[in-house]
Amino acid sequence: MNVAIFGRKVNKQNASYYAELIKTLKDFGWNLIFHTDLKEKLIKKVGIAENADSFSSHEDFKSGIDLSLSMGGDGTFIQNVRFVRDSQVPVLGINTGRLGFLANIPKEEIHQAMDLVKRKEFVHQNRSLIRVETERNLFGEENVAFNEVTLQKRESASMITVHASLEGKYLNSYWADGLIVSTPSGSTAYNLSCGGPIVTPGCQVHILTPIAPHNLNVRPMVVPDHMPIKLTIDGRSRSYLIALDGKSLSIKQNEEVIIHKAEYMINVIKFEDNNFLDTIRNKMFWGSDPRN
Fold first, then answer.
1. How large a percentage of the chain has pLDDT more than 90?
2. Which one of 74, 177, 225, 245 is the catalytic residue?
3. What is the extent of the structural domain holding 81?
4. Shared domain check, 140 and 46
5. Residue 59: what are its φ and ψ, rounded to 5°?
6. Could you give the CA distance from residue 65 to residue 194 in angstroms, rounded to a whole number?
């Protein structure tokens, strides 16, 4: 079994967890393939062999890789998804960050989780993505987001207006600092911070959530994900920001943005005792009362 491993940091806090993961997988007889940058860090900090296999592009996932692991937080998980793309390689995230809605395997349970993978005691949870089209093809081939697409003002600019249409029909003009269009996976990210709803994975929807709207009667809206969404911005500035999972570029006034559901999905590995509802309840301390 060929396992790709992705991570961004190797330090004294997580080096021992990398060492445990590597030892566990090697004891299983699995072949490890490290991201190029991670490999260089692990050679210095953990002592892996310099001739270890490595990958550097999404092209490497088109054949020969059976499982993709990320070591870090949710940001690392999302960056790893950019390598996986439409390869259908299943993904699993080990959390060495903070909340860990996506990378939700505790770092203390690496061996147990890998043992479940070895015994094939897991299911694939399909996660949808968003594809973005812009007039100038701003993002090129990197035009897919796992969490959200955001249109927003620049730091020093005044409020903007985001005009939204749904399947060719005018929806609303949002007078706000910006607008988030989120997947169900992204419902626990920026969307949640701006008062949007939490949506369980598997729901075939997109979520439109305004950022600091001026009109208090404007609320987030959940729409079917098969309906294309068209957005344009206007305001006092000539340019604004469009971000895909945090990667921001400049977009011009009145430049059209078309949002579709991506043609492929990501297969996230889930274990029976580690489901979305448990993650939400535990991470957000639902039901806990500090008075008791």
1. 83
2. 74
3. 2-127+265-283
4. no
5. -65, -30
6. 38
